[in-house]
Each structure stands twice: as C-alpha cells, then as structure tokens.
Amino acid sequence: MAYSGVLPSARSRAMVSESRHLLMTVAPGAVWIFIFLVLPSFYLMSVAFMTNGTYGLPEMPLSLESFKRLAGFGFLGWSAGNLFTLLRSLWQTVVSTGLVIIIAYPIAYYITTCREKWRPIMLLLVVVPSWTNQVIRTFGWMNLLAPGTPLAEFAQMLGLVPANMGLYPSNFAVTLGLVYNFLPFMVLPLYAAFEKLDHAQVQAAQDLYASPVRAFWHAVFPQTLPGLLAGIVLVAIPAFGMYVIPELLGGGKGMMLGNLVANQFSGGSNWPLGAAGAILMLIATFIGLYAMRRIGKRLGGGEEVVI
Amino acid sequence: MTSSLTAPDNATPASETVHADYPEDSASRHKASTIVLQGLEKRFGADTIALDGVDLTIDSGEFFTLLGPSGCGKTTLLRILAGLETPDGGRLLLGDKDITEIPPHRRSVNTVFQSYALFPHLSVRENLAFGLRMQGISEAERNRRVDDIADFIQLGPLIDRRVDQLSGGQRQRIALARALVCEPEVLLLDEPLSALDAGLRSQLQVELLRVQKRLGMTFVFVTHDQQEAMVMSDRIAVLDGGIIQQVGPPRDVYERPVNAFVARFMGHDNLYPVTNRDGSALMTDLGTLHLTTPPDGDLLLIRPETLDLLPGEQAGDNRLFGTVTECLYRGSHAEYRLEVGSTTMQATVRNCGGNLPAVGDRVTVVVSTDDLVTLNA
Question: What Gene3D superfamilies does the record tag this protein with (chain B) (predicted)?
C-alpha cells in the first residue's frame, strides 16, 4: 500500500515519454500523408464547388453547377447518362464481387486441404498474374475476346453475339476483367481464414447431424467471415473506381464512374465536374465501408472484423 | 487478507464433479445399441493397409476400448464408426440396421474429438445446442436439454462463456457434454484425455467412467495408453497392423496376452523363448521351470509382480537364483532388475516393511507356477 501514492505519477511519466516516442516515429509518415493526401483532398473538394472555366480549369465564383451536371442536368435539359454510369458502376461492383466470392471460396478451401509444402506454390499461382501490369493483362483479354477468336466464335455459335462481332467491348467483358483482376485479393484473405480453421470442426459439425451444406453454413462460413469482409473491401472498393478495365473492355456503353471522372480531367476537360465525381465516389466508398462494418458486427465476426 | 485462507464455498472435491441426479427420464431414454463390425477393410493409397478384416461385436451399454500404438488402425476404425471414413470392404451394423453407407449426419452416433473441435464462433451454450439445432429440435426443448446436461456435467457458470476463454479440462468436458446432449446410441471418444496433464487426466477418467455407468450408454474409446484402457474398460481390443490381436476384459488382456505383441504392449518385459521342453518342464535362458498346465506356446511370460524375492540362495521347486543389478524404490513397492542365468528379468516387490534386497545382493526368485503363461511369438 505504501507505494500506491508514487506509482500513478511514475506511470504517467512513463506514458508521456512513451507517447512522445511514438509521436516521433509516426510524425514523418503523418506529415507525408498530410501534404500529399489530406491537402490535395481538400483542394479537390474545393474544386468541386467552383465554376468550370474556359479551358476546363476551375474558376471562381463558387457554385453547385458541377453537382447539378453530375446529376444529369446539362445545357440540353436532364439526361440519364451519368445516372446510368453510376448505377452501372454499382451493378458491376456487386456482380463482380459476388462472382469473385463464389469462385474464391472453393479455391481458398482447396489450397488449405493440400499438403503443406504445396500450399505456398498454389498461392503463388493465384498471385503471379497480378505481378504483370494490369493494362497488359487487360490487353490480353482484348485479344482473347476479339472477333474471330475461338471464344468469340463459340459465343456466336451459341447465338450470344451477332456474326462478325467479338465478346468485347461489352459489359460482360468488363465483369470478366474485374473478376479476373480481383480474384487474388479475395483468395488470400479467405485462405488465411480457412487456414486457421481446425478441419476437425467440419467433421464435428457433420457428426452433430449437419448435412455438408449446413456444416459449411453453420460451422465454416461464420469463421471465414473476417476474411470474407476483408476480401470484399479489397475487391469492391477498387472495382467501384476501376478505370483501366472498363476503358479497354467496356466501350461507350460499358463506362464506369472512374472513366467519367478521368474524362473530366483529360478529354472532356471539366475539373469541377471530375472533382464532384471523385467526391461522389468517396462518399459511396464510406457508405459501403460503414455497411460492411455493421454487417460484420451483426453476423458475429467479433472483434476480428477490423474495417 | 486473512479471509482468503478460507476455502471458497463452491469448491467441489474432484471425485464429486459428476452430479448423480441427471433426470431419470433422460437417462432411460438412451437406447444403447449393439455394434457389429463384419470384415471391415480400409486402405489408404496403394500399400497402406489401415484395417485388414476387422470382425468385432460391441455390446450395448459396454465401455469398449480400442487400444494400440499409433498407426495401428484404431482411429480409422473409430472414424468408420462415426461415418467420417468409408470402409473399402465389410459391413457395419448398429442395432439391426446396416449403417455402412449412411453419412455421419444421419447416424445416431456422436464423437468426442481429440482436439475437441469446439466451434470458436459460438458460445458454450450454442456449442452444446448445435447437434439439437441441426436435428430441428425446438428452442424450448433445446434449452431444457442443454440445461440438464450442463447440470449433469456441472458446467455451471461456463455456459455463457466464449470457447476461447476455457482451459483444456473445461473444453474436454464441454466436448463431452456436446456429444452427450444428443443422446446418441453410441458415443465415440478419440483419445479425449491425451491433451491433459496427468492429474486432470485421472480425475476425468473417473468422471467419464461414472457418466457412462450412469447413462448406460455404449462408449467406444480410443487410446494408446494401456493403463488408461485397463482403468476404464469393460473390454479391450488390442490392435496392430490393422488386425485385432486380442479382445477381452482388462484382466484377460493383461494377464493372459495371446501373443508377444499384446504382452509387450501391455507393458510386459519378462518374455523368454522356450529353448526346450520335457512334459511340463520348460527350458529357457533363465533355467528350468515347471508349469501346472502343459505348455503349448513357444514364449514364456513371467509377470514381475507375481515374483517373490528371498535373501540368499534357498533351494526349492521353481526357484531361480540371481543378482540384483538395479533397484527403483517407489514407496509402496520396489522394482528390481536381476541377472538370472544368462539373461535378465524384472521383479516387483511389495514393500511390506520387511527387508528389501539392495543392489549387488544375491537373491532367490520364487516363481509362482499358476501365474506362468506361455504364448505364441
């Protein structure tokens, strides 16, 4: 009891020196992030509320013009073009993320059932394609889906595309490109979740009267939830803002929000409109993250869900 | 601070952890079933034979143990009973039903896994209710049965914990309760005590045995520990190389092993090849011994605890002379290693307060001929 009066101040002094230490370590990174992320973000936001100048550069006075245009109100009255682009982005994100989940689950599970010495090699095979530049891989898909290729001709045979047409440009090609591109980002976190799972638990579930489907749903799936949510964040957010894949595989009717924004900073030249699009993207991302967090807590991912 | 010296009121002696009053109606609802195994075969790959034609009948309400070294096929046999492994040949009957092809989730058989395999995403209560929930039993009924089993196994305040907050012994008991609450016809236990330390292990052995006797359920228990097998079992099957070597009550298996493998696995070291025989007389490296029954095997087994040591050389029938080379004093008894004839033997002597021979002493070994067994190598 005698030392209790001394201890708190000694402890707080230790904590002060520790936090000062921590501050020193974190400071360079924090400064970097402030200068190159936070400040430009504020600049971008302010641009969104400015007027479009003659050469597409932002000018005073402040206005909500670009948000109106983003909502579809142009010189010729309202058009649904931008709204369609937004909905298409959401749709593509949902569909491709869903497909990635369906494809990644069996792959991740299969790898964990392999012998331990094969697992790193299998994971490598999953990851290796992403070491090649995304643009080059997307060009690869263009060659695979172009008119006259076996895939395109097979699709023609089935009557899916008109004669002499390829499978791209199309929304289908964009979905395909997104699924292909983001698969590793789902397989890896799911693999990590599966690897932690004791295989005896699957057998225990079956032993306790769960059919294989119910054993997966009640015993396996809840335990892979942290991995799944991490995977969704890694896939859905970049997919929503994707530029390269819809640009190369989508054509005019496959445009996504990322292309809309990019066009305002290059060809179309309307910085305020581009900035408004970027803000919309940011808001949508935050809403998505918040929803994931809620879902994660609801489904009982526990403290492991750190999004 | 002085109050901490008083034992807490809820401390229960180790021997009373199993409640005696599990509801009678639940206890009588258990229908224990006979298990019949006919010519079960199982191979892994081309040349690993896990089971090589196993025939076995396990009676209802029996505590039956599969005993053997690792790789003997005992776990494979248990997994076939659970339905987690399909046999390559043979049949499996539960009661009068052929369940060879029935998947695990449709068998009235539950397993306590070696790793316990509790679900970490569920609370203890949800773990216990899992089997009942999968069977589509109503929530009210589920809660009632989970509460009953929790009382019976005395889980008390553990029931609302998370699984990762439990100790090894607690997990073990929850794994047991999770299987028992389903009231299966047969309970399978795959080395359920092997991960626990010695003290807890013997406590849970007693607990498990009481549960089984109380419920009258058929237990099939897998272990590699012959001591554990002898303590728990009504009958033991000793397996090696996918073949059942011997089946019988613990005393039979320990005192009358049928071959050298069983004898060695049950812990016997005093095995001597018979070099010559003449009527009831047997010649071994120890010397000549006379048996009451005519010997037929070619290997003589002398259990160390049936021997008696006398100081000096005192001639008589069935007596051998030897020198003490090693002595392990264990309190209640002492274990000796002796040089006898051209070989060595072990003897265990009860410490009755008399003189115990010391290392280097010349002793007379009195062999009780009733306890001599010959067996086939």
Answer: P-loop containing nucleotide triphosphate hydrolases (3.40.50.300)
Q: Tokens 């009053």: give the residue.
A: B21
Alpha carbon separation from B156 to B148, B202, B268 (Å, rounded): 11, 22, 43
Measure in Å the smallest separation between the Cα of B104 and chain A Cα atoms: 5
Q: What is the pLDDT of residues A111-150, one digit of tens each?
A: 988 888 899 999 999 888 888 888 888 888 888 888 778 8
Q: How far apart are CA B118 and CA B113, in angstroms?
A: 9
Assigned domain for A247 exists: yes
The CATH number assigned to the domain holding A135 equals: 1.10.3720.10
Residue of chain B whose Cα is closest to the Cα of A201 = B117
DSSP annotation of B85 reads S
Residue A44 within any structural domain of the chain? no
Query: What are the boundaries of each domain within chain B?
Result: 14-259, 271-375
Fold agreement between B14-259 and B271-375: no
| B184 in A contact zone (CB under 8 Å) | no
Distance from CA of B346 to the nearest CA of A (A): 43
- Tell me: do A110 and A200 sit in the same domain: yes
All residues of chain A having their beta carbon less than 8 Å from the beta carbon of residue B118 are 201, 204
Instruction: Please state at what angle helix A221-240 crosses helix A171-195, rounded to 10 degrees.
Output: 140
User: How far B133 CA sits from the closest chain A CA (Å)?
Assistant: 9
A222 and A140 in one domain?
yes
**Token pair of A128, please?**
């290796």
Return the residue of A nearest to B128 by Cα: A208
The nearest alpha carbon in chain A to B184 belongs to: A208
Nearest CB neighbour to A208, from listed B83, B110, B121: B110
Which residues 154-183 in chain B show a CB within 8 A of chain A? 178-179, 182
Of B105, B113, B131, the CB nearest to A200: B113
In chain B, the residue whose alpha carbon lies closest to the alpha carbon of A224 is: B121
**A144 lies in the same domain as A20:** no
Residue A42 covered by a domain:
no
Closest residue in A to B190 (Cα) is A200
Same domain for A292 and A145: yes
Q: State whether B117 and A210 contact (CB < 8 Å).
A: no
| Nearest by CB: A204 against B109, B117, B135 | B117
Task: Give CA torsion, residues A233, A234, A235, A237, to 10 deg.
Answer: 60
For A13, the domain range is 1-35
Are A200 and B84 in contact (CB < 8 Å)?
Answer: no
Q: Indicate yes or no: CB of B130 within 8 angstroms of CB of A223.
A: no
Q: A158 and A293: one domain?
A: yes
Residue A11 and residue A120 share a domain = no
Contact A112, A194 (CB under 8 A): yes
Identify the CATH class of B14-259: alpha beta
Q: What is the pLDDT along chain B (377 residues), one digit of tens a residue?
A: 333 333 333 433 444 445 445 554 444 445 667 899 999 999 888 788 888 989 999 999 999 999 999 889 899 999 999 999 999 999 999 988 899 989 999 998 999 999 899 998 888 999 999 999 999 999 999 999 999 888 888 887 888 888 888 888 889 889 999 999 998 989 999 998 888 888 888 888 888 898 888 888 899 999 999 999 999 999 999 999 999 999 999 999 999 999 999 999 999 989 998 888 887 788 888 888 888 777 778 888 999 999 988 888 888 888 889 999 999 999 999 999 999 888 899 999 998 877 888 898 899 999 888 888 888 87
d(CA B275, CA B8): 65
Is residue A163 situated within a structural domain?
A: yes
Q: How many CB atoms lie within 10 A of CB A232?
A: 24
Considering the domain architecture, whether residues A31 and A84 belong to the same structural domain is answered as: no
Question: CATH top-level class for B271-375?
Answer: mainly beta
**B259, HSE (Cβ side, Cα atoms, 13 Å):** 10
> Which residues of chain A are within 8 Å of residue B135 when distances are taken between CB atoms?
209
Chain A residues whose beta carbon lies within 8 Å of the beta carbon of residue B99: none
